[in-house]
Write a structure and sequence with these properties.
The chain is α+β, with helices and mostly antiparallel strands. The protein is 21% helix and 27% strand. The protein is built from 2 helices and 3 strands. The relative contact order is 0.26. The model has no long low-confidence stretch (mean pLDDT 82).
């Protein structure tokens, strides 16, 4: 398995300086009729990079 991906609530997004990745932006897009999705994902470094024997995980929370 390359990645474990799970849905999450848009309201649970972490604060970031990238406005397009915020709950606020999701609300703006919803007013335009566009529904947003948010995900958590996790993958081993060795599954992402060639020559890496590392079993630690890369965790993305968006």
């Amino acid at each position: 398995m390359i990645a474990d991906i799970n849905d999450k609530e848009v309201s649970g997004l972490y604060k970031t300086g990238i406005i397009q990745q915020t709950a606020y932006w999701s609300a703006v897009k919803k007013m335009q009729g566009i529904e947003s999705k948010a995900f958590n994902f996790k993958s081993k470094h060795s599954d992402l990079y060639i020559g890496v024997e590392d079993d630690t995980y890369f965790v993305g929370i968006y």
